[in-house]
UniProtKB/TrEMBL annotation:
Enzyme Commission number(s): 2.7.1.180
Cofactor binding note: Magnesium. Can also use manganese.
Similarity comment: Belongs to the ApbE family.
Residues reported in the UniProt entry to bind Mg(2+): 138, 250, 254
Reactions the enzyme catalyzes: L-threonyl-[protein] + FAD = FMN-L-threonyl-[protein] + AMP + H(+)
Record lineage: Bacteria, Pseudomonadati, Pseudomonadota, Gammaproteobacteria, Pseudomonadales
GO molecular function: metal ion binding; transferase activity
Name of this chain's protein: FAD:protein FMN transferase
Cofactor(s) it depends on: Mg(2+); Mn(2+)
A Pfam short name: ApbE
Record keywords, A-Z: FAD, Flavoprotein, Magnesium, Metal-binding, Transferase
InterPro entries assigned to the protein according to its UniProt record, in alphabetical order: ApbE, ApbE-like_sf
């Protein structure tokens, strides 16, 4: 993974700490080899190559991520859609390359999560159409953070902070005090827009500053793509989601980014135990009901 992974935890000895953190790093590596669309030899790439011909049996982990992606797609009315990759793969943020309007039009019909058929009994994935390409970039890191936390827990760790890029999970508190988590200012890498005291929570941020370039028209071409028009989504600069697990918060942060302030908050306010902080294009901050009034509003605790 190109994303930096950081963790902080307390253990009995230095040797233990080294061994445990290595286990977590190895798990991230394994998941990257499984779910990266940038690796030809990943399980996901094999699915992308063959699932339009026949149902492909996949591993437990990948199937779980496919199922969660489908749930977030349903919940967000298709704002979150892993088949965005059918167009998304044509963007190259390092090379500052974006597809032409014709290329987008040609591939847009391939974005349709309804054409991804998951068979729970057989644990298979089938694509109803050729040309459909899936990309787990909006959800796989959250899955990996959850698996990392599982490892730490199984090792007896009770206080930990584990993050990979925009996804973080806190296990317990910071030994008697809350962890202090900053939500960064989308236009200033070294400043926080807000700082939160937190414990035992997953927190994911999707931002238009993670992977982007400015094109010849001065437009910010970033990595969160509208399934409707195949273009980077406008309207917000960042979305932060708080919840119980990072698989959910990771998927929802991308979904809310695509939905925008109004629809995004409406969706979040209907979910128990989930909250959102949105920073819009005018740099205004918007909070879900549970953060404005923790006792009322959403049922988050
Ligand atoms: P990161 O943690 O890398 O910042 P995010 O959680 O913010 O990632 O999600 C952004 C990623 O989601 C993009 O890099 C891309 O891989 C994927 N993505 C972009 N648009 C969509 C979409 N409409 N639905 C699902 N995934 C998307």
């Amino acid at each position: 993974m190109t994303t930096p992974i950081t963790m902080e935890f307390w253990s009995e000895s230095e040797a233990d700490a080294g061994r445990i953190s290595q286990r977590v790093f190895d798990e991230f590596d394994r998941i990257d080899r499984q779910m990266s669309r940038y690796r030809e030899d990943s399980e996901l790439s094999a699915v992308n190559r063959t699932a339009a011909e026949r149902p492909v049996k996949v591993s437990d982990g990948l199937f779980q991520v496919f199922m969660k992606a489908e749930a977030v797609s349903e919940l967000s009315g298709g704002a979150f859609d892993i088949s965005f990759g059918s167009v998304g793969y044509m963007y190259d943020y390092r090379e500052k390359h974006q597809p032409t309007a014709e290329q987008i039009q040609q591939n847009l019909p391939h974005i349709n999560y309804h054409d991804i058929v998951l068979d729970k009994d057989e644990q298979t994935v089938f694509f109803r159409q050729q040309g459909l390409l899936t990309d787990m970039g909006g959800i796989a890191k959250g899955y990996a953070v959850d698996r990392g936390i599982d490892i730490l827990r199984a090792e007896g760790i009770r206080h930990a902070r584990l993050s990979a890029g925009g996804d973080m999970r806190l296990l317990g508190d910071k030994r008697g005090r809350p962890w202090i988590v900053g939500v960064r200012d989308p236009r200033n890498e070294s400043a926080n827009a807000v700082v939160l005291p937190l414990s035992d929570v997953a927190i994911s941020t999707s931002g238009d500053y993670e992977r982007f370039f400015i094109d010849e028209n001065g437009e910010r071409v970033h990595h969160i793509i509208s399934p409707k028009n195949g273009r980077p989504v406008k309207g917000v600069q960042s979305v932060t989601i708080l919840g119980t697990n990072a698989l959910t918060t990771d998927g929802l942060s991308t979904a809310v980014f695509v939905l925008g302030v109004e629809k995004g908050l409406t969706m979040i306010n209907q979910l128990a135990g989930v909250d959102a902080i949105i920073i819009d294009e005018q740099r205004r901050m918007h909070y879900s009901a549970g953060l404005l009034d923790p006792k009322g509003g959403s049922e988050s605790e």
